Amino acid sequence: MTDERGRPYYVQNIPVPETPRPRQNPAAWKKTDVVGKRLPRVDAYERLSGSAVYPSDTSLPDMLYGAILRCPHANAKVLSVDARDAERMPGVRAVIMQNTPGANVEWSYGRGYKTKLFDPHCRHEGEEVAAVAAETPYQAWDAAKAIKVKYETLPFLSDEQEALEPGAPAVHESGNRSGDVQVYQRGNIERGFADADVVLEQNYRTESELHTPMELHGCVAKWDGNRLTVWESTQGVYAVQARIAEVLSLPMANVRVIGHYMGGGFGSKLQAGKYTIIAALLAKMTARPVKLFLTREETYLCVGNRPPTNMKLKAGVKKDGTLTALELTVLGSGGAYPAGGASGVDWVVRDLYTCPNVRTSLTDVYTNAGPARACRAPGHPQGAWALEQMMDALAESIHMDPVELRLKNIPTYSQAREGNPPYTTTGLRECLEEGAKVFGWEESRKRTADANVADRLGHIRRGVGMASAMWAAGGGGPPSTVIVKLFSDGSVNLNMGASDIGTGTKTVMAMVVSEELGVPLDKIQIEHADTGTTQFATPSGGSKTVPTESPAVRAAVLEVKKQLFELASKDLKADATDLDVKGDEVIMKSDPSKKIKIGNLSDFRRRGVILGVGYRGPNPDKKVVNPFAAQFCEVEVNTRTGEVKLLRFVATNDSGRVMNRLTYDNQVFGGITWGIGLAMTEARLLDKTQTGKMVNRNWHDYKIPTALDMPMKIESHPVDLDDTEANTTGAKGLGEPVTIPTAAAIANAVYNAIKIRITSTPINPMTLSRLISRSRKEG
Ligand code: MOS
Fold this sequence. Notes:
single chain, alpha+beta, Aldehyde Oxidoreductase, domain 4, seven-stranded mixed sheet
């Protein structure tokens, strides 16, 4: 997602330095030896053996533990906080609340709105009221519970669909609207509908999903004098540094944030949390390191969610499959604070298919619920849930194959962006054609339809469905700076600021180094994600890390090579352009018998190392870099129980060059798992009548898909279009686009099986059996 100035959402809150123009602009690789291979992660052993030290593993001498007291009500004013008993409890070293010196600081979830770190008006369950540091976690939690708080409870609003009704409880004094209604339009929507042969209209809804990363949110904070070091589970150390410095009025140089490993974020760890600031303040008060990690229950309430989304989509199509008009109305809620409740939802409607007349309107309202956060392709899976089911229905209404309908409407340029810039590559056609072929789309449609008609499986019905997607980000771009150091034995140190959020960033970047220098991966040491020692990087989010960082890595290695060949050309008496490097040797291309060890180069010793700095150049002017995808699936519906079994999935992705086939496929499997969660099992449930509280705040009642929920077969088929225009490695983003079409593809397959449209997530047995019996009654 980008703001008006074209800045992606994940950099909006951090200062973006001017990036020097790239010093070199090498041509794309024609053939590769390392890049593209199926290679295990460079840190696979550390991750699997448990020896990798995650922030939540960090343990420092003398460390205290923090715990946060949270408001138990959906909406309440804090009248008084009495911590006298808590302060006297065993092991308690500090208690912090609104009136503690230094704690009365401002906090923003974004979009300019300021609240307080401990705001006396708690607008959602779980809002922070006070915190404790103690010798053990249990002492800290016990003490937090012993703090006596007087609340004045207020009427609450947990259903965003009631937010604008007269008499609805006001989440903010100013009312329940969060920002202005955002309208986008092109063409003439009325004329578009008038031109159509068929016009369909449907309401859709997706429930709120939680990020639920394996590693909880939190950090360890430690002061040395006036310098603060924070080990934080984060997607972006520089974003966390900037936020801490801003909130605590510290020079950025005095704040060091380290995030070497992290166990998942999915958008909920793109910036610091209140817990980060609280840990830093408790550490300052006690002059001891403080570890503050939230419980699973806390993370369900206050560190983000994919917002609930209500959509109304009206679409017009001609008999030949030409889309004439699309109109989308969205009501979303980012919860109690401005947090982008509806953002991104309309992007697929605006730009996935060619359509001259489009109107979208996004309304964002407040509710008494935890603030939303960017969550795996923000808005896009919701929008695709509506659009891709609508495309299925349109295809049926004009008796056209759903794949064919999509093939008829493939854009080559962005219709929604100013000036209609062309895409560097649009692999949507390839995704659809390749996917249909590998899946056996036409045969499968016929086979399942025949089986259903013949009643061959009894109460079991089979169906196939498909959906496609685009991701309005994923092109990456500057700033990115990387330093590569070459040692005398040919081994390498790679220094970059980016976090490896579990996707294999370190591995892919090491492969780029290896490609250019011929150095094996185990001789590359990676220094990353540390504001004290590594280069600047924007947070790893938006599926932009590979396209952003890999060109800078390549530029840095090429700079090293240039210097190396200058040194070697003297010793080998060769032209620098006639040299190549392989591991610890420089070799003459025209006469491979002439070679020299890097360490033996006469000028190398004086330098000690060769150091190359690489910058990421800008993306091509007036062009757009976006990934595309298509997915096909087969399901089985038990019409007695309402159970849906996912049998198989085929995923095709145009994400540019495949950098590592193993981590690529891992992203595809992970993205589909996310989509299955949205479609089938995940829903934040608020008690909308009695308390406004979340009733399924644990992994038992809030169900994320497990191995048994996964299809037995998922096939990943990259459409490997090396995007030579996008950047110097040819890669586009992958993780998030995968998750966009999944839920809609499943819903379309369920429709194909039983001719019932499920317009609200999740497609669980309760919902589905209700719909099945209703349709039977209606005959
Ligand atoms: Mo992305 S929303 O940063 O996982």
